[in-house]
Amino acid sequence: MSTTLAPRPRQVAAGRPFIVTSPAPAGAWAEVLASAPRALPTQTPEWLDCVCAVGGYRNASRLYETADGRRLVLPLVRRAVLPGVLWTESSGPTGWGPAGLLGEGGEVRPDDARMVFADLADRHALRVSVRPDPATGPSWDAARPRRALRRPLMAQTLSLAGGFDEVWRKRFRGDTRTRVRRAERAGVVVQRDDTGRLLPVFQELYARSVDRWARREGVPLAFARRRAARREPTRKLPTVAAVCGPRCRTYVARVDGRPVAAIIVLFGPAVAAYWRGAMDEDAAGRSYANYLLHRTAIEDAAAAGCTAYHMGDSAPGSPLALFKSRFGAVEEHYASYRLEPVPITALTDRTRRRVSAALRRRRGRE
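^ Acetyltransferase (GNAT) domain-containing protein, sequence as received from the core. Prediction below:
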């Protein structure tokens, strides 16, 4: 259970006053959300409920009221490291998509981000991390204090302006339309479900994907499976499906009745977000099932009135980034940020590099 703090005035170093309430009142959050034309599904109160239920976090969301009467919400969660003594906070924990500041009217100014950085730096957490909405990235970069660690990221988003017919004709590349048609001619069938019925199918395909990624990375299978179980606990997807209901939709592509690929798409008030994907590469073969999956989801998003289809993060120049660009998704370069009194990230990165090097050496001996 979260404790609600009475609204209290604060003053940032730049001299800009504001009032903060935590956790953010549900009514105020809903009003800010409704006013934001490009709010992500991962910036909603329901999404934060999922994060807390699955990840062992507490609701630490913050409502900011500025001197000029504007309201902004920061979805934020807290996890105890040493109860009552040490804790971490995150706005967009790993595996849960971007969050960051949600401004009334969809506006997030550099001064807003500067206000939040100053407020979070005063939280005395072991670590505070923020992964903002990519569309607000320039404001966060302009406000970043010197002490904040910056990790560059790249998202890709497809505009749905003009409806699906225009997206199909003008934004999908010609070879993408060709591959969609080939998938249809090959008999690929796409199923949709928003009740959770198809989640076991997705989870089976995801398990096969984990094994494929392990082979590609040269990581021991047991290690890869443990890592995947930690990142994607069994209860995660059913919890999201139960809380989000029809706003969480699973798409499964079948070839000759056999499931070969699946995606999970989240539907927000104005933005749909591709959240998870998995496939059986051997079974999918050259069926182009993933092209038909996304074509179907994009058409559904446009029909639902969404103005954008957020396709998530990719490494610049990677095959995944190329795949997304074929649908007309545009790159958005942004960053996540960390505030740490103690350099935990540097120590963790050093350990991770050593483990990776040891795994590569082991692979070389096999």
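The chain has a mean pLDDT of 91.
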